[in-house]
Design goal:
The chain has 464 residues and is α/β, with parallel strands linked by helices. The chain has 13 helices and 16 strands. The longest helix has 22 residues, at 356-377. The two termini are 26 Å apart.
């Protein structure tokens, strides 16, 4: 990383010697040629340039590169809940293309109305109004506009390290340096931030009692009180926006969101939950906020809503927030596109009828237990955490000091790729595993076998 560049958070380093060595060992001439063309024609940006490799097929939990190597995809940008290329979804999209491929924005259509009705029916009680967008970042900005219009305020409160999208509004409330620093600013005024909840390395995140158990009560009080303090001091915040479960991942301590909800109510601020990566079953509940029994004023969905095939996002809001009839919060060309709406409807059908939320819960509990067993055998692992199929393994050089093992995390990543397992590194040292909701016990075991083998090899080479 160049001196003065923003700290890594969203993904792994693109220009590291390890990546270059991995590419030299695994890429054939055709892959090298395609990657060179990609670098030639696409504008470069962090965490997506240069590309890691090139794929030609995606099916089930697998992606296949153009050289024929297959990888279990435990990354998928959190868009592949159903898996890749679910045949029922593909068939529904094809039928819709034949029936009605597009609807000009001045008109409505049955798939759009059906999707709006369906989302209201399945969402937490009280979220009775909907707007669609073409991506999660746009949907976040719609939610921010609604909050401004409804409250007459413009300030927001969010968390450092959060990611809410790449647009100027979404980046302003986000907390990752690479999306908001350097030549990108200045951003929206009034975007205030506080420290995130439940950080493993924070002295208040997971302090332990005499029995070695995390003091989650202390974490809840400390982190929630930061939010309360900021709301009281500012006094005119339109909304708190946050991921109910941080996708890194970090899981909120019990009672945290109830305390934040109370603080919002007291100060007249709205609560916006960004469930773009975690909603629709990823955490073992249809909505991540259901774990905490807290209902937001606005809830944002995206990514997997289109089944990992087509881009569509949604904002759900309380009926009282329907205050923008004289303005345009979104009005996107493809807002009520019948094909993307059909993809979303079919995605919801598949999630429900195939019992994917329950499978995410069962396989996630099983995986978390096994990860804890792996942690007990490996000093390189400082923490494992998760909810459903949102799983994190934090690597540290020293468990007592919780020093991030960034080099080790990168080494584990590329060793795992060499053995057919793809996942993401978050915050520099968190191995983030987010498999699709269709994952089986056998597939999960195979992936965790690879992970432990790679961790073992790195420990042996590093002298752990």
């Amino acid at each position: 990383m160049k001196q003065g560049s923003p700290p890594l958070a969203e993904g792994e380093i693109n220009h590291s010697p390890r990546r270059q060595a991995w590419q030299e060992a695994h890429h054939d001439e055709a892959t090298q040629r395609l990657l060179a063309e990609d670098a030639r024609f696409f504008l470069h940006q962090s965490v997506s340039t240069p590309c890691l490799s090139a794929i030609r097929r995606a099916e089930g939990i697998w992606i296949e590169d153009i050289a024929g190597r297959r990888y279990m995809d435990f990354h998928g940008n959190n868009a592949h809940h159903l898996c890749y290329g679910h045949p029922r979804l593909i068939a529904a999209i094809k039928r819709q293309l034949d029936e009605l491929p597009f609807a000009p924005r001045r008109f409505t259509c049955e798939p759009a109305v059906d999707l709006a009705r369906r989302l209201v029916e399945i969402s937490p009680s009280g979220l009775d109004k909907v707007l669609f967008a073409t991506g999660g970042s746009d949907a976040v900005e719609i939610a921010l506009k609604i909050a401004r219009a409804a409250t007459g305020r413009f300030k927001t409160l969010s968390f450092w390290d959060a990611f809410h999208g790449a647009g100027f509004g979404a980046a302003s409330v986000g907390g990752e340096a690479m999306f908001r620093s350097g030549p990108i600013g200045p951003l929206l005024t009034g975007a205030e931030h506080v420290a995130p909840f439940a950080c493993y390395r924070c002295p208040y995140g997971y302090p332990c009692d005499n029995a070695g158990q995390p003091r989650l009560d202390l974490c809840r009080l400390t982190c929630a009180n930061l939010v309360r303090y900021a709301l009281e001091k500012e006094g005119d915040v339109a909304a708190v926006i946050a991921e109910p479960a941080r996708a890194a991942p970090y899981i909120p301590p019990p009672g945290f969101w109830r305390a934040v909800r109370e603080a919002c109510n007291e100060q007249g601020a709205l609560l916006i939950f960004d469930e773009i990566p975690t909603g629709l079953g990823k955490t073992g509940r249809l909505f991540a906020c259901e774990h905490d029994e807290v209902i937001p004023d606005l809830l944002v969905l995206g990514k997997t809503l289109g089944g990992g095939v087509l881009p569509i996002a949604a904002v759900l809001a309380r009926a009282e927030l329907d205050v923008g009839g004289a303005w345009a919060f979104g009005h996107y060309t493809h807002e009520k596109n019948p094909v993307t709406c059909r993809a979303a409807l079919t995605t919801l059908d598949i999630i429900e009828e195939e019992g994917l939320v329950d499978n995410a819960h069962q396989q996630g509990e099983r995986a978390l237990q096994r990860l804890r067993e792996i942690q007990a055998r490996h000093p390189l692992i400082g923490d494992v955490r998760g909810r459903g199929l949102l799983l994190g393994v934090e690597l540290v050089n020293d468990r007592e000091r919780k020093t991030p093992a960034i080099d080790a995390a990168e080494e584990v990543l590329y060793r795992a790729l060499s053995q057919g397992l793809s996942f993401k590194v978050s915050l520099g040292n968190v191995l983030t595993l987010t498999p699709p909701l269709i994952i089986t016990a056998a597939e999960m075991d195979a992936a965790l076998d690879i992970l432990e083998e790679c961790i073992t090899a790195v420990e042996q080479e590093s002298g752990f």
